[in-house]
Write a structure and sequence with these properties.
By secondary structure, the chain is an alpha/beta fold. Helix content is 27%, strand content 23%.
């Protein structure tokens, strides 16, 4: 739930609930030569103009930007007699802002590496791990004594010296397996395995290492938080994490020690969609529903060539902030290097932050809501190395994009927290490819269906248990209404599925008797009471061209649809439709996913938005009000940043089912500022939005 921040006063600024009024963040990451060159007053002015109420500032770790007294804690050689960290802390506090100190412990200088070789990560051949980007410095071993002892001393010194609310650690989780003698001994003693040679989800040693690493990192979060609180009881240690990396920790300890979370997904990279910003918010909210979360946004492009001290187009920066804001993430922008050779980023950030400041009080007390949830498959993703998880997410990304295109509002729910209460918030859940599910997780889903819930699932969902053992049949076979008859096969080419008996799932394909199939196929037998709107067309060659024709009639269920008998519906698609849609974007697959969700819902959606264009929708509610965010993704660079300009879209019709006991409503547009008419149509309210430039929010007040 969102809360209007209280005014930051002397009494509230240092209370244990300080984070509730820290909702717009400026991050300044110093370069080593900044102390000799930067203008502190420029940054104080940026704080004012952006209405920032919190700042994250470089303090120590790899380089200290204050006069540290810790041996081997490298202090910037440009610091002289100044204290750049302390100067900004003082200026921010005078503005009533919250302050978080940033530490980065991922690397050390050569003198520290020579004095303490045990602090350095070790390659498999026994050599010290030199930094990949800057020769002459060394990567630290995140699971050893460097973090546990040295970084703890740094945190303790910063918290004792400065008036701060939190410590934020960046790049603290390590970079690959460190084969130090100490790690090898500890790992073998605790697990019985040798350290894994490579990332391999099927290797028991890799699985054991991932769990071992998860335990040590979680313990570090607790240790550092306790260190902070021992000096400043109101303050916290906050680890930097991506939306997916919540799976890296013991959730109960994160719940206890991290009152606020941040997503470090700073901009679009490569072929990425603007909704990726908001997806991060949904993912963390899918695990910690009520935890405030900030989205770190870079003012520069986020590409593999690392132009970190550059400037992104203003519209691109605003798109990232807007979509994050719509999906419940408060804005945080980061600038690397305190000297500003190009200030074109300033006004776009000011505009986006000021919009957040205007809208924030209007949605006070509202909670993001939806009737549909995509199950975030943490159990599956844990089986992949962090650097390879994006491959495992293709199915989920395809379903996500299909629902955005279909204008269907939805949330995430992590498979780590599938309680009956959590599941029952939704009329329908989507399992795009939750390959690995435990018996308990499968039971939770089956019980949800028995209580009237609906399911759309695809591909290898539930084919393996949580540790990677393949089942003889799907763990959710009774839910699917289908049994496995042969193992998945692929990749295959030139496959098709044929439209079978008329059914709502194969509507919209007029003129076609078949559509593109998958590249990984699973053979199943459908239950007698289930329907099969699509059948597999048996494989046929893709070359020579003269041989490209089907030899056999369609057979075997390619889509299974059934009524559950408990008030819900289930659709199971036994091939990788999400992955193929994400890679190919064939409209037929997007339509099939949307058809499956719409049919399985079994009724009209609570919120509908009709009109031209691609928009990302988020819905917020409280008893007497509803707010609907509409983020315009319609632009020539929708699948590739940076956005050149916004293409406004025309009239949109927003239709919302009236809550029980309500008979009328009033509405206004929070961005445009205009009031708008509410037309009562049956048991729904219709509102016309004349146009949307970058973002609009329809704010409805319900009346009895």
């Amino acid at each position: 739930m969102l809360h209007r921040p209280n005014a930051i006063t002397g009494s509230t600024a240092r209370s244990p609930e300080w984070y509730k009024s820290a909702t717009r963040w400026t991050q300044l990451t110093f370069a080593e030569d900044d102390p000799d060159k930067y203008d502190p007053e420029f940054w104080i002015d940026v704080f004012r103009r952006t209405k920032s109420n919190a700042v994250c500032l470089s303090a120590g770790g790899y380089i200290a930007y204050y006069p540290s007294e810790i041996p081997l804690h490298y202090v910037s050689k440009f610091i002289g007699g100044t204290d750049p960290f302390g100067t900004i802390v003082e200026g921010a506090r005078k503005l009533g802002m919250h302050v978080m100190a940033r530490v980065d412990p991922h690397a050390i200088h050569a003198d520290a590496a020579e004095a303490h070789p045990e602090w350095v990560a070790i390659n498999r051949d026994g050599s010290p791990r030199e930094h990949w980007a800057y020769p002459g410095i060394f990567v630290t071993d995140a699971l050893g004594s460097y973090n546990r002892n040295f970084t703890t001393d740094v945190i303790r010194e910063i918290v004792a010296k400065y008036d701060i609310d939190a410590v934020f650690a960046n790049r603290w989780q390590g970079h690959g397996v460190s084969y130090s003698e100490d790690n090898q001994r500890r790992f073998r003693d605790e697990t019985g395995y040798d350290l894994p040679a490579k990332a391999d989800a099927r290797d028991p040693a890799w699985q054991a290492w991932a769990a071992w690493r998860r335990r040590i990192l979680t313990d570090l979060v607790v240790h550092w938080d306790e260190t902070v609180k021992s000096i400043r009881p109101h303050a916290s240690f906050i680890p930097n994490m991506s939306g997916s990396s919540l799976m890296e920790f013991d959730l109960s300890l994160i719940q206890k020690h991290c009152p606020i979370l941040f997503v470090d997904h700073q901009a679009r990279q490569g072929i990425e969609v603007g909704w990726s910003a908001g997806r991060n918010g949904k993912r963390i909210r899918g695990t910690f529903r009520d935890r405030p979360v900030g989205l770190i946004t870079s003012i520069g492009p986020e590409e593999e060539y690392r132009w970190k001290d550059s400037v992104q187009s203003g519209e691109e920066t605003k798109l990232w902030i807007h979509d994050g804001m719509a999906q419940g993430l408060f804005p945080w922008f980061t600038k690397f290097n305190a000297c500003v050779p190009d200030d074109r980023w300033v006004q776009p950030v000011v505009d986006a932050f000021n919009l957040h400041a205007d809208i924030e009080p209007q949605i006070d007390g509202m909670a993001p809501t939806a009737e549909i949830a995509i199950i975030d498959p943490s159990t599956t993703l844990r089986h992949w190395a962090p650097e390879e998880r994006h491959i495992a997410e293709h199915n989920d990304l395809g379903f996500y994009h299909a629902l955005v295109e279909a204008r269907i509002p939805f949330e995430f729910l992590s498979d780590q927290v599938m309680t009956a209460e959590a599941l029952d918030r939704f009329k329908l859940i989507v399992l795009a490819n939750a390959t690995y599910l435990s018996d308990a997780q499968c039971s939770a889903i089956e019980e949800y269906v028995n209580r009237g819930g609906s399911v759309v699932a695809a591909n290898e969902t539930s084919l393996y248990d949580e540790v990677g053992r393949q089942r003889s049949d799907f763990g959710l076979a009774r839910v699917f209404g289908a049994t496995l008859t042969s193992a998945p096969r692929g990749p295959v080419k030139n496959t098709y599925v044929a439209l079978s008996n008329p059914h709502p799932l194969n509507r919209g394909y007029e003129g076609a008797t078949r559509i593109i199939g998958g590249t990984r196929l699973i053979a199943v037998d459908a239950d007698a009471k289930a329907e099969t709107p699509f059948l597999y067309i048996p494989d046929f060659p893709d070359l020579p061209m003269e041989e490209v024709y089907p030899r056999e009639a369609p057979e075997g269920a390619a889509v299974v649809a059934r009524e559950t008998g408990h008030g819900g519906r289930v659709v199971y698609i036994p091939w990788n439709i999400g992955e193929v849609f994400w890679k190919v974007l064939a409209p037929d697959h997007g339509r099939l996913i949307a058809n499956a969700v719409n049919w399985a819902m079994g009724r009209d959606h609570r919120v509908r938005v009709e009109g031209k264009g691609i928009i990302d929708i988020a819905v917020y509610e409280r008893d007497d009000a509803t707010a609907i965010f509409l983020v315009n993704l319609t632009n020539p660079m929708m699948m590739k940043g940076p956005l050149r300009e916004v293409y406004p879209i025309g009239k949109q019709t927003v239709s919302v089912a009236m809550p029980k006991g309500r008979r009328s409503a009033s509405a206004k547009l929070l961005v445009n500022g205009d009031k708008c008419e509410c037309c009562i149509v049956g048991d729904r309210v219709e509102i016309q939005v004349p146009s949307i430039e970058a973002i609009e929010t329809v704010h409805i007040i319900w009346q009895s």
